[in-house]
Amino acid sequence: MSLILTGEQLKISEIREFLSRKNKVDISKEALQRVKQSRATVERIIANKETVYGITTGFGLFSDVRIDPNQYNQLQMNLIRSHACGVGAPFSENVALVMMVLRLNTLLKGHSGVTTDLVEQLLFFINERIIPVIPQQGSLGASGDLAPLSHLALALIGEGQVTYRGEQLDSSDVLRSLKRKPLQLQAKEGLALINGTQAMTAQGVITYIETESIGYQAEWIAALTHQALNGITDAYHEAVHRVRNFEEQTEVARRMSDWLEGSKLTTRQGEVRVQDPYTLRCIPQIHGASFQVFNYVREKLEFEMNAANDNPLIFDEGDETLVISGGNFHGQPVAFALDFLKIGTSELGNVSERRLERLVNPQLNGDLPAFLSPEPGLQSGAMIMQYAAASLVSENKTLAHPASVDSIPSSANQEDHVSMGTIASRHGYQILENVRRVLAIEAIIALQAVELKGIEKLSPATREKYDELRQIVPSITEDRQFHQDIENVSKHLQKLSYYN
After folding, report:
1. Where are the alpha helices (DSSP H) in 186-331?
2. Cα–Cα distance between 124 and 417 in angstroms, integer?
3. What is the mean predicted confidence (pLDDT) over 182-211?
4. Rounded to an integer, what is the distance from CA 480 to the centroid of its chain?
5. What is residue 57's predicted lDDT score, i.e. its pLDDT?
6. Does the global pTM surpass 0.90?
7. How far is CA 70 from CA 48, 67, 438, in A?
């Protein structure tokens, strides 16, 4: 089954399915016709020798420099080569792949003036899974993600590095082996490829997919902890949450009740204690607030996924055609959303670390042994796993600082305000990875705690999760290197983001 791109209606759920099923991409006939129409406008501009930014002029501060008609195509090649100066580790293959899908979807709106050759080259790279190697750092997120998208464009013209079938190779070598010619950029096309927010948006989409999933996973992990601490279920009663008015909070409370249904480890208020600590009692309020963030971010990302965000834009208004220089490449709306996502994600880690602290602290965990040690004193048990979790959530507090409040002028002050949205997207994924490891630690500790309480008393739903995770991480019968356990559970949680 193919993912049909129209330029108008792409959803994050479709991207998730595209990645998990390794689907191919196709283009609607209507979208391809729009591409042809907008290209015809560019050809008329060239024929009429009009002055239009990026087609017949230079870029940025050089926008007033008129280019010789014989050098229009060379202008675009020079643009890509000079702007491909990203640095640092590359984006993941999934991010680079989604970047191509999103760029193609934008071009299909018919406001960019590219040729069908360019569209078909992008389609070929996507479907053959020829993945450009795109350095993560170097974008200001305002004139578009210029540096990252230039590395994407380099691969299309056979001058960059790509990953193909597990190997990092020269794009030219891969194209030659597949009997495919490098793309020859035409007027406007280099600019159309790199003026846009696809780097920050693609990374944002991947972060969103995995973060939403980790939000759901945090609930059954919390349910294991809840049972290990003989938590009170009354606080999840629907009536409590209905009067608060937040739908996401009510939904979390309902799911928590479902996870705990049938447990012999939970209690009612007054049986053991009157109230639980906030990290158990307020799970719907805390997790629900994160889901509010996720819903906001999903909406903004999907707006941008289907947006025309390059410059200049071409509009067919019936009797006249407009070519307008604007600023849709500015990443501010996406930057704000991705900074918000960082906050919503980091809080899932904060509350998880506080829950797992209760499991290992003998002053807080009821009758469980200190640090769940098999031999307290001789063996440390889960002591330092809590240290690791505390370190990760502390690091997240630094990473959650908003990137979008910063700006620095560029291009000789022509581009005098920038969004830093790509930095927000990168930090967001780092936060996610840290939170996933914190939740992995909570899961490992909670498994041990409920084992000590009696796994036969678990709710049926969480017993399934216990059995699932015990295939990955064994019981703590003696001290061992827990590093690999944490990584194994974290990878399992990541896999669930796409295959659950």
Report:
1. 189-194, 198-228, 238-242, 247-260, 278-281, 283-305
2. 36
3. 95
4. 33
5. 80
6. yes
7. 14, 8, 58
Which residues fall within 8 angstroms of residue 221, CB to CB, at 6 or more apart? 352, 439, 442, 443, 446
pLDDT at 221: 98
User: Of the residues 53, 164, 208, 429, which is catalytic?
Assistant: 53
Which residue type is seen at 485? D
CB 291 within 8 A of CB 253: no
Residue 61 pLDDT level (bands cut at 50, 70, 90): low
Q: Which of these, 279, 284, 221, lies nearest to 436 by C-alpha position?
A: 221
Encoded amino acid at 445, one letter = I
CA distances from 287 to 179, 334, 365, 400, 489 (A): 52, 23, 22, 17, 21
Q: What integer best gives the mean pLDDT of the chain? A: 94
In terms of Cα–Cα distance, which of 15, 363, 30 is closest to 371? Answer: 363
Least confident of 362-371, 406-415, 448-457: 406-415
Q: With contact defined as beta carbons under 8 Å apart, do 375 and 477 qualify?
A: no
- Residue 210: pLDDT over 80: yes
54-67 as b/e: b if 16+ CB within 10 A: bbbbbbeeeeeeeb
Q: How many CB atoms lie within 10 A of CB 369?
A: 17
Q: Which is it for strands 25-27 and 3-5: parallel, antiparallel or unpaired? A: parallel
Tell me the pLDDT band of 60, cut-offs 50, 70 and 90: low
Phi, psi values for residue 356, rounded to 5°: -70, -30
**Percentage of the chain surpassing pLDDT 70?**
99
For residues 262 and 264, give the distance between their C-alpha atoms in angstroms, rounded to a whole number.
7
Q: Which of 421, 499, 498, 500 is nearest to 209 (CA)?
A: 498
Residue 236 among the catalytic residues? no
Q: Flag whether pLDDT at 35 surpasses 90.
A: yes
pLDDT at residue 319 tops 80: no
* DSSP classification of residue 66: B
220 and 256 Cβ atoms separated by less than 8 Å: no
